[in-house]
Amino acid sequence: MMDAGRHPNITLLTWSEVEAVSGYVGNFSVRVRKKARYVNEELCTGCGTCQEKCPMKVLDTVFEAGMGKRKVIYRPFGQAIPNIPVIDKEHCTFFLKGKCKACEKFCAAKAIDFTQQDQMLDLQVGTIIVATGFALWDPKHLSQYSYGKSPNIITGEQFERLSNAGGPTSGEILLADGRKPEKVAIIHCIGSRDHNAHAYCSRICCMYALKHAHLVRDKTGAEVFEFYMDMRTYGKGYEEFYERVQEEGVTMVRGRGASVDVLPDGKLLVKGEDANLGRLVTADVDMVVLCTAVEAQPDADRVGALFGLSRSADGFFAEAHPKLRPVETNTDGVFLAGCAQGPRDVPDTVAHAGAAAAMAIGLLDRGKVTISPTTAKVIQEDCVGCGDCIPVCPYTAISRVDGAHKGIFAKAEVNAALCKGCGTCVATCPAGAIQALHFTDEQIVAQIEGVLAWA
Amino acid sequence: MGVEFEPKIVAFMCNWCTYAGADNAGVARLESPANVLPIRVMCSGRISPEMVLRAFRSGADGVLVMGCHLGDCHYSAGNHRTLKRVPLVRNLLGYVGVNPERLELFWVSASEAPRFVQVTKAFTQKIRELGPFAQEVTA
């Protein structure tokens, strides 16, 4: 992050959203809404005084995953780049009630600007990398796990905050009442590999669940039960880590955790099946960690439409080929990186992102693109100038060109740089005067006759 | 009739959705009927009525036109043209005494390999029951 922020050739537009994309590979026009931060980026020194002085605190559901609070003028997390805070307009006392301005009063750099407006930026870019990441599935959808009914039933992400030195307990793994847990259950595949939720494997959960088990053993010495279906420790050094966690005394239960019940004394009863023993097992524990599924971002639909991306059945953006072109998309010049394309762990994401950057730079460096030879061509002698082809073209690649005939009688011509070769105009032309190169009428008819003669 | 009638079906598939879907069906080792003879075009909008009639004239017993779902067209709206053309050709077939059921339009996306198999199997079975095209037009 820091390296990207400091690089002279990288402009970071945070707190911004892409509103519209037009053009084609090498010549994209992107309209970005740079949302108002209410902090002048030129003046702000990032000292953090405003955050200290702001009197309003709200629950942080993003970085702290609901485990902690943040101020209303805030940076999303300590190492956030750029080191410039933003005012949460929905909760700011000044925006709600018209007074306060504590941040403005204490800002030595005079950087607070309550009058700031959203800015529209029009960018001309050659290539686009879509790296919009993922969302975590809400375990409330499966009520048998009682998520939300006890503060000691938490998600893997919340556990991450709990064990983080910068988190709400300064890194101590504690129950909601401040006691140390004596027994902890970790349940895999919450929403993954489940036809009631997502059929796919989220790939990252087995490894972080093992890490959580290790942390619990290390920090509290509590007894840990891992309810897993299959242990998918497929990466370099991963299987070795699995063995190490087993040696640390974690109880592995092979079988999906079926339910979690909150007992009257606040303890949690986990029921599941041990498929190896072939019988039902129960465990009464103090804390339950649910390893929730990785899923596509909730706005993937809108983002996909913006960049002309299709989505695979699992909801993630579809790559051009599942095995051979995992970085490219079907839109030339648009690449995918990371979990926007599918669940993957950190090393895989780094590799994917590196590949996307290399492909994007390679394309820009060449300065030329090879366009597909499948374009449409007007046979001038046959064209009667009716113009039927012009409105059907989805790329506005056809226009009338004045020659021997002028104005509304002029003949049609195809701009090969804009034409993508769909052939809709070819099928429309009543005079048969447009041919799709490599998909001409003769070629298709020859194919029809060929397949039928052979069958 | 010792041997059961096996129809010949010409299937026009768009390059971006259905052809990729059929490819994925193969990758996934899903079985689809060998009666379906694929012809790749860039967009289902490329299929002119003449192409469908040509296929019948050249000996096809059924014709499938397959493309991206509405709204998913790689070329934004090519399949909207297809949506208008296919019913027109079906009417025309009925007018000249051919069962319009011999021509069908399906949307199959690149990720719908199982749907590709299901659609082609069902269509093949339907044409198998309708019998040979030649029998219908000479009768």
What does the model show?
The complex is a heterodimer of chains A (455) and B (139). Chain A folds into three domains: 2-121, no CATH class; 139-292, 3-Layer(bba) Sandwich (FAD/NAD(P)-binding domain), CATH 3.50.50; 376-454, Alpha-Beta Plaits. Helices cover 23% and strands 24% of the residues of chain A. In chain A, β1 (16-24) and β2 (27-34) form a beta hairpin. The model of chain A has no long low-confidence stretch (mean pLDDT 93). In chain A, the strands form nine sheets. Chain A has a five-stranded parallel beta sheet. Chain A has a three-stranded antiparallel beta sheet with strand order 1-2-7, with no helix packed on it. Chain A has a three-stranded antiparallel beta sheet with strand order 14-15-16, with no helix packed on it. With 455 residues, chain A is of the alpha/beta class. In chain A, α6 (205-219) runs parallel beside α7. Chain B has five helices and four strands; from the N terminus they run βαβαβαβαα. With 139 residues, chain B is of the alpha/beta class. Chain B has a single domain, classed as Rossmann fold.
Indicate the mean pLDDT of chain A: 93
Please state the structural category of chain B. alpha/beta
Helix content range of the residues of chain A, please?
A: 10-25%
Strand order of the largest sheet of chain B: 2-1-3-4
Task: Report the CATH superfamily of the largest domain in chain A.
Answer: FAD/NAD(P)-binding domain
**Percentage of residues in helical conformation of chain B:** 40-55%
Tell how many strands the DSSP assignment of chain A holds: 23
Question: What is the CATH architecture descriptor of chain B?
Answer: 3-Layer(aba) Sandwich
The biggest sheet of chain B amounts to: 4 strands, parallel
In what range is the share of β-strand residues of chain B?
15-25%
Instruction: Using the alpha-carbon principal axes, give the shape of chain A.
Output: globular
Described by strand count, sense and barrel closure, the largest sheet of chain A is: 5 strands, parallel
